[in-house]
Design brief:
- The structure is a single chain.
- This protein has 176 residues and is of the alpha/beta class.
- The protein contains 6 helices and 9 strands.
- It has a 5-stranded parallel beta sheet with strand order 6-5-7-8-9, sandwiched between helices. The protein has a two-stranded antiparallel sheet with strand order 1-4. The chain has a two-stranded antiparallel ribbon with strand order 2-3.
- The longest helix is centred in the C-terminal third of the chain and has 14 residues.
Length: 176
Amino acid sequence: MNLTDRFSLRSRRVEFFVGTVPFNRFTAPLGMITDAESVTCSVPQARYWDAMPDPELIVAVVDDDPSMLSSIGCLLNAHGFAIEKFTSAEDFLLRKSPNRPACLILDINLSGMSGIELARIIADSDAPIPIIFITASDDKATCARANVIGCVEYLRKPFQSRLLIDAIAKAKACSH
């Protein structure tokens, strides 16, 4: 079985190794996510474990940084999640999908409407969505506001990708 076949298996999940892994003439980018997992789908060094992904689980991601959106999207796809990506809070509010996301990964400092403002709108709606905040800011006041609105997790960039996957599992449990 070649590498491409391994990545297409729906009954396996993939966890990537530390840092940049050079192979051929390509080096895997670290982006903002760092730890024991480099978030790049094309890295040939990966661990696999048995776990059936949940095809019904949709994770929405709102971040105005394209590299962060790409990194998170790649990580979540590798773990079997369906992804909806948005570059602004306004784009998320205009989404046309009839399916409610199981959770929302939301950057706090967005251009235009902030993540905190979007979270307030979602919290006041008829169908609130569990929110995982991500931010490069280490501001205690912002963290306190996020917790008052109600969030499943508050992750500071760069964060360990395992923390994000665990937060999604926690959010999924909250949404049922």
